[in-house]
Amino acid sequence: MDVSATKRRLLKVIFLGDSGVGKTSLMNRYVYKKFNLQYKATIGADFMTKELQIDDQLVTLQVWDTAGQERFQSLGAAFYRGADCCVFVYDVNAVKSFESLTSWHEEFLKQAGPADPKAFPFLLLGNKIDVDNGHNRAVSEKRARQWCDSRGSMPYFETSAKEDYNVNEAFLCIAKAALTNEE
Ligand code: GDP
């Protein structure tokens, strides 16, 4: 019997980005298939889990939320410890949330200290693409992709937690990326 076919991998995924960009909403949409328009539906727990299968591999995704501590250095070491994938989120309608990404990236490298920062799996999500159908967005897709490319071809998805657009696709990519982490 092929043991690898039944072995379950626990993968820790952390979400970073300014408060209000939709981190909790994206997780709620993916894990519980629901969306709440009220600001900060804080769940109280540190993380949500979702099980999925990727090829022969059973995976438990453990997705960590910040519970409103999105100021630099306010997330404790336990938040970063053992992360297999780091997902950055910004709001395509809020330029400041995009400009914060570089600081979030630096903060992750400082706090998590991955052995090989270039090989570590990162992703970027541009959320709230549903607002104005994306016509009056503040940050262009091109600009976002340039930021990703300058950091080693980071995968990029434009999402809407509200409209359930690209959320499953993004999380599948997150899970696959996390699986590549050997640390
Ligand atoms: P967090 O602080 O990054 O976790 O952000 P939240 O998930 O709490 O979301 C902040 C606000 O943005 C809430 O009012 C959400 O309902 C709203 N929101 C989140 N995602 C979307 C989205 O894709 N589209 C729209 N229009 N609003 C969203």
Distance between the termini: 27 Å
DSSP helix count? 6
Q: Report low-confidence residues grouped into runs of 5 or more.
A: none
Bound molecules: guanosine-5'-diphosphate
| Relative strand content | 15-25%
Q: What is the average per-residue confidence, as pLDDT, rounded to a whole number?
A: 89
Largest sheet features:
6 strands, mixed
The percent range for helix content is 25-40%
- The total strand number stands at 6
Rg, Å, rounded: 16 Å
**Strand and helix order:** EHEEHEHHEHEH
Class based on secondary structure composition and strand pairing: alpha/beta
Strand order of the largest sheet: 2-3-1-4-5-6
> Could you say which overall geometry the principal axes of the C-alpha atoms support?
globular
Description of the molecule:
It is a single chain. The chain is α/β, with parallel strands linked by helices and 183 residues long. The chain is 29% helix and 22% strand. It has a six-stranded mixed beta sheet with strand order 2-3-1-4-5-6, sandwiched between helices. Strand 5, helix 5 and strand 6 form a beta-alpha-beta unit. The radius of gyration is 16 Å and the shape is globular. The model has no long low-confidence stretch (mean pLDDT 89). The structure holds guanosine-5'-diphosphate.
In short:
This protein has six helices and six strands; from the N terminus they run βαββαβααβαβα. It has helices at residues 23-32, 77-80, 95-99, 101-112, 141-149, 167-179, and strands at residues 8-16, 47-54, 57-64, 85-91, 122-127, 156-158. It starts with 7 loop residues before the first strand and ends with a helix.
